[in-house]
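This part of the workshop introduces the protein records we will be handling. A record pairs a protein's sequence with a compact description of its fold. Comparing a sequence with its tokens is the quickest way to learn the format. The record below serves as our worked example for the rest of this section:
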Amino acid sequence: MGGDGNDRLQGAQRTRASEKDILTGGKVRDTFVLGDRSGSFYDDGNARSMGTNNYAVITDLNIAQKDIIQLSARHSYRLGSTPQGVSNGRALFIDNEGSTQDELIAVIRGGGNLNLNSSTFRMV
């Protein structure tokens, strides 16, 4: 959970374990870290699974505060609806081409008007 200053929030650290992290920022600019140069922190490694047991929930993304979602540049992403049985919000998936299942990595509450090409998303 963030505080009064600029916060950097990171739940998982490249684990394949089933993990649901709740990331809540503070009052000013926050960075929600979902991946780095080595890859996504929420990829369960199972190509047949959508990853509904391993993802982050961003509870308070605020575009007006210039919050950032940091992603690994090693993947392509897409925004979509949350899968059945997952908390409400806008779903962020690793976009796996072909017959491989896309991987849920985050649910963003209040993320209805997000665009992956906006400055809200930072690829590293």
